[in-house]
Amino acid sequence: MKAQFRPLIVIFAVLAAITGLVYPAVMTAFGQAVFHRQVNGSLVEVNGKVVGSKLIGQQFDAPQYFWGRLSATTPNPYNATSSGGSNLGPTNPALADEVKGRIAALKAAGTDASQPGSQPIPADLVTSSASGLDPEISPAAAAYQVARVAKARNLSTNDVQALVDRYTQGRQFGVFGEPRVNVLELNLALDGKAAS
């Protein structure tokens, strides 16, 4: 009987060591050597202090900053430990109420899409993502906020739009995804412009 179990135990031990110890150690070492910044969270530092990550959104609600995509991680926005969508379907009245509230908040902040010549509010400013942690918004969502940010910072809209254009990333490999703007990087660039 022991002779039958011995090969099974040996195979289990060898595979457990390979998949549980060797492979993770090799991949960790490779990642640290080749993609050091990315495997450590793509942290963003200013003056030696970590201010955020390029991969996880954070809450900006002051008028002088661009606002990111809404977080579905309530009651603590942008909390990575409770990542996940709201799970509200498109026909759920609670979703419609949330969107109406978000539209009202955008209008109260000084950007009113009902005025002549205004653009419609981009969907990513009034809906949350599947993870609830998106660090990026569409160029349309950034353009929608340019006038408010420029006014709050006493800058020209052309200067602010130029920063948006500079921080707009194209499709990955020219094919995948949509153009996007990292909100943290854009806001840090605005702070740098204000400091200069």
TrEMBL record:
<keyword id="KW-1133">Transmembrane helix</keyword>
<keyword id="KW-0067">ATP-binding</keyword>
<keyword id="KW-1003">Cell membrane</keyword>
<keyword id="KW-0472">Membrane</keyword>
<dbReference type="GO" id="GO:0005886">
    <property type="term" value="C:plasma membrane"/>
</dbReference>
<comment type="subunit">
    <text>The system is composed of three essential subunits: KdpA, KdpB and KdpC.</text>
</comment>
<keyword id="KW-0633">Potassium transport</keyword>
<dbReference type="Pfam" id="PF02669">
    <property type="entry name" value="KdpC"/>
</dbReference>
<comment type="function">
    <text>Part of the high-affinity ATP-driven potassium transport (or Kdp) system, which catalyzes the hydrolysis of ATP coupled with the electrogenic transport of potassium into the cytoplasm. This subunit acts as a catalytic chaperone that increases the ATP-binding affinity of the ATP-hydrolyzing subunit KdpB by the formation of a transient KdpB/KdpC/ATP ternary complex.</text>
</comment>
<dbReference type="InterPro" id="IPR003820">
    <property type="entry name" value="KdpC"/>
</dbReference>
<keyword id="KW-0630">Potassium</keyword>
<keyword id="KW-0547">Nucleotide-binding</keyword>
<keyword id="KW-0813">Transport</keyword>
<comment type="similarity">
    <text>Belongs to the KdpC family.</text>
</comment>
<dbReference type="GO" id="GO:0008556">
    <property type="term" value="F:P-type potassium transmembrane transporter activity"/>
</dbReference>
<protein>
    <recommendedName>
        <fullName>Potassium-transporting ATPase KdpC subunit</fullName>
    </recommendedName>
</protein>
<dbReference type="GO" id="GO:0005524">
    <property type="term" value="F:ATP binding"/>
</dbReference>
<keyword id="KW-0406">Ion transport</keyword>
<keyword id="KW-0812">Transmembrane</keyword>
